[in-house]
Amino acid sequence: MSIISKVLLIVALAQLFHSGFSSYEFHQLKKQLAAGSSVAIDQISLPKDIRLEVLSGLILFTFSVFMSFGKLTYLPLSGKPVLLSQHEYLKEIDMNRATMTNNLIGSDPYGEITYTPNFVDVHAKRKELKQWLNDRESHDKVN
Amino acid sequence: MHLPSLLSFFELSKENAVAELTLDPKLKYWVLLPISIVMILVGVTRQHIMALIGLKVKSVPRKKITEAQYMGKAQSLLGNGSNLSDESFKTRQEYLAQILAEGKYVAEQTKSDEPVNPLNDPNASDAMMNMAKGNLANYIPQTLIMWWVNHFFAGFVLMKLPFPLTIRFKEMLQSGVMTADLDVRWVSSISWYFISVLGLNPLYNLILGNNDVDALGMAQQQQQLGGMPGGPAPEVMMKNLANDVTIAQHETCFKGIEERVLKLYKN
Amino acid sequence: MSSSEAFADIKSPVSIEFNRKVILRIQDITSLVYGCGAGILQLESLQGFGLFAISYISVAFVFFAWFCHFQPGKYFQSPVQEVLIDSLFRELAGFVMAWTFVYALLG
Lengths: 143, 267, 107
Known about the structure:
The complex is a heterotrimer.
Chain A: H1 2-36, H2 48-68, E1 73-74, E2 84-85, H3 95-105, H4 111-114, H5 122-142
Antiparallel strand pairs in A: 1-2
Helix pairs in contact in A: 1-2
Chain B: H1 26-54, H2 62-80, H3 86-102, H4 122-152, E1 157-160, H5 170-173, E2 186-188, H6 189-208, H7 212-225, H8 234-247, H9 257-264
Antiparallel strand pairs in B: 1-2
Helix pairs in contact in B: 1-4, 1-6, 2-3, 2-8, 3-8
Chain C: H1 2-8, H2 13-40, H3 45-67, H4 79-85, H5 88-106
């Protein structure tokens, strides 16, 4: 996607530069003619090919700009590093939709509030684990 | 300043009757381009200078932060209390009402009723200093460039505007050109300065990227600072908050939440 | 229930800011380049502003069609205000600057 955009950008810029230079030469010539001769100079306007070149340059440039924004892709925070996409160029503003992206990549933007390991009673947990291990050993012995 | 001046050959064209001047082409390369480049570079430099002088971690005494955060806590309970179940709302309500009413976390007891001079407060003066610096960083380069343009590139016609203007602009845009009858579309270099001042914003956005993260951080810091100078005393605010918390009506959002969630994600 | 409506339309500030930046960037770059185009064509007065109006509106239209899939309400709180009106004078000034610059360079 972005390669097409870059190619278009180069073509558009080349067209704009070329038409700009052509237009510059045309206007220089027009001025010199106006100085020297009695031709009705004001009736001569910019040649059609230059105008068309400018227009095509502008339109190609617009498309290149739009194409330079690819569909948004995300890397998941855990699991296989595959690019995920929701086939969207923009992000939806409704909160219930916006959180879907976070769910997709496994990100928790409010983690600093909800992730509270310092509230965990480690001693109680260890005791519980020890209890469980003991239970299992005794269970194993019985079997 | 020795710069190529305009040649004087007038010609009335038939249609729009604008006097045609022939300008020295060197004007474009030695006046138009330098002004544009300088303006862009000054914009870039200003951005960086702003980043340098604006980057300062503010320190607030811990007591002040505690005070501000307890008030913030009460406010968020009032605002977002419906996210809590009835039981936990009641616990918080009782606790906060009590704490705030007795003013346990008021940072400093104000002795008298006289308002404190905001200039004496170091934090307030800091904020004002930052504001002043921001303003200076905006105005000094502008004034400098304007002086530079007026001083070095005055007294000649630089370019022709592609659109007509009313005669009122003549004095401003043709300053230093002593021609009474010249069309307003022929303007001197100061008008290019004005046009670029107005029109450079999109260009800055493109070449500088965006620094909205900084803006966000600054907003957070400002919030942390708490009460602005001249506001009501924190004790009074706490008392008011305590009253508000005490009389707050509670309506939990957990009522019928299953149906609502299903409805929300139905489509 | 009152709170159900209140929570149904909570907006995500991150997304709003992101979308605003995308449209601002598109409009900035297109208005500058269309200004250059107007300068190359040596357009004068109303023709130039006409080109600006056409380009501004058509860029907004392409944006709505291509990026918003004709549902701008999903991506902007008030689409017309945010896309068309908020940045109008900024883009007009950029356009006029580029137009004047190229017009003077070529003319």
